[in-house]
Design brief:
single chain, 301 residues, alpha+beta, 2 domains, six-stranded mixed barrel, 11 helices, 7 strands, elongated
């Protein structure tokens, strides 16, 4: 025996829940009045099914979900409507499949077709809501991380002159405050393992000397040939292990791809021995002055 009020209540709650999750996934503002209106529209196919041989039942299976998604999530254009409809339909199919699988797994019925949701087994609906909440939290955490990296990662090219052009990914590091003490240009940090192949041969050979063993490696610059002192410098930095020196290369051409446009700058590249990213998402660190100042202000606001 089926009770119409229970069926309408459960169907309305599921529609409202799916509209809520679809709005969250699309980062849309939730309007309670529109959400409730959309859920109420979802009751129409059930009411039409009460009348035998009603041709509107099949038509409503297409039109009503479209109206539910459009009104429930307050779509403002045709493209917006189809996006809302797609998310609503996919979530409906996923929750329906999960519910049918739970019916068989928990032995509530021999087949999903022989099961009817009542107040006695409404805990299945509550369990489904809990699973959806957990999935949304996991999705939100991963999506937030990806969204953050999409705002601070840049495709760059470094031309050291005389060597090959290094193409890699750089992270906008708001903590990078290094500037060349001679030119006052902001510095970019680049991993040693990726930079050596792009360095001009004289500079690469010079950096192979045991400069790390010296208390002040700057003395090596004045005793070198090939005008190394004009291109190479040593930067004193302070880390967790105390003060140390890092080699830097001046007059490096930096190309940054940002919002589809390419900008060029002349920078000093500091070569660091450690990995900058454990998962290899980036191999260089940009100074805040390397990117557009207006966009940078928006990102840190």
């Amino acid at each position: 025996m089926y009770y119409l009020d229970i069926v309408l209540l459960i169907n309305g709650l599921m529609d409202a829940l799916i509209l809520l999750f679809a709005s969250k996934l699309l980062h849309r503002r939730i309007y309670p009045a529109f959400l409730i209106s959309g859920a109420l529209l979802g009751e129409i196919p059930i009411l039409l099914a009460l009348f035998p041989y009603n041709p509107l039942v099949h038509l409503s299976k297409v039109i009503i979900p479209l109206a539910v998604a459009g009104i429930g999530m307050r779509a403002r254009s045709w493209g917006d409507l189809w996006e809302c409809f797609l998310y609503f339909t996919v979530l409906t199919a996923m929750t329906g499949g999960a519910a049918y699988a739970g019916i068989v797994w928990f032995g509530l019925a021999d087949t999903a077709a022989g099961f009817s949701l009542t107040l006695d087994n409404i805990w299945l609906l509550l369990a489904l809501i809990l699973v959806l909440c957990l999935c949304y939290r996991l999705w939100g955490k991963n999506n937030g991380k990806q969204s953050f990296f999409s705002q601070v990662l840049y495709r760059i090219e470094l031309d050291f002159g005389g060597g090959s052009v290094l193409k890699t990914t750089a992270l906008l590091d708001t903590g990078n405050e290094l500037r060349d003490p001679l030119t006052d240009k902001p510095m970019i940090l680049i991993q040693e393992n990726v930079s050596l192949t792009a360095l001009p041969r004289p500079i690469a050979e010079f950096l192979q000397c045991p400069w790390r063993d010296l208390a002040d490696p700057c003395s090596l610059l004045w005793n070198s040939s090939n005008n190394i002192a004009e291109r190479v410098t040593f930067i004193r930095v302070k880390g967790v292990n105390g003060q140390s020196w890092l080699p830097g290369v001046r007059s490096v051409r930096l190309k940054i791809t940002e919002d589809g446009s390419v900008r060029e700058k002349t920078v000093t590249a500091v070569i660091v021995p450690q990995l900058l990213s454990s998962d290899n998402k980036f191999e260089a660190l940009l100074h805040p002055d390397h990117v557009c100042r207006e966009k940078y202000r928006e990102e840190i606001a």
